[in-house]
Amino acid sequence: PAPSFNKNTESVTVRDGMLWFPNMSVYLKTFDFLFKNQGQLDNWEKTFEGFKSMRTAFEEITDEEQQMMARNGSIKGYENVISIIRNKEGELEETINIEHPIIATLVNEDGLIQIGDVVHKYTRNKIIRLKNASQKQVEELKLVNDQNLPSFGKISPIIRNTTPLNSSRAGNNTSWTTYDAGKKRVKGQLEYYNDGNTKGYSGCTHHSKKKFGIWWASKTNSLRLQATGTAVWGSVTENIDFDITETNVKKTATYALSYCLVTCQTGPVHIDGTHSCGDCNHGSSVVCYTDYY
Fold it and tell me: Are 126 and 157 in contact (CB under 8 A)?
């Protein structure tokens, strides 16, 4: 049966373009609901008039906007949604500021969300938490990024560990394959993410094109993510078994694989991921492995 959105959103409202949760308990219940219904993230978001998530804003950036940013050598105006990073292969690439699909659905296009009386601002690497924020301060938070942090609020790091590995569980091998004369690629990624509320693991299959020396996220018709393994939270071992194909036109197929509250004790984790693109050169694919101890 289709999930009941009303039961899980009745106390969540939109204020000044961001989602407002009356308390952390409602936020965590919503997070868990979305974790269990990840195929419905788009439909869930559409129930909130006046709200656009960071995830949707990322998908809506056009080729023309990317070319403009590349020519100008600047992402000015888009800093709340994307960053240009030098990846572990040494190349520049565009990335959404929050790779975690559920958090990127709950945070708006300015990187903002409110839980109780605390506004949270997400940048690529930081979270700024501000209690009883004034409207002026909220407007100032919209302009905040990692190079322009505010003088107010509590600033905490976002902890992430992206481990793209290929043929071995040791070393730092790349996990991507190019096609179309090296102009396009499929990339696999497995990530640990901790934002101070929850922590866990997600997997992503990226599709991108190279323009002006930068790999820019690019839409394609079919992206597949397969992931198997185990994650230990305290005394509980959770089995991970995902095989999902994103058939809507998307830049990424990203799914949360396992999560727990930030207070959970983290144990050994072993995940194998296979990332493929059905429309890319007759099914280009790459394999990722990740181990955490």
Answer: yes
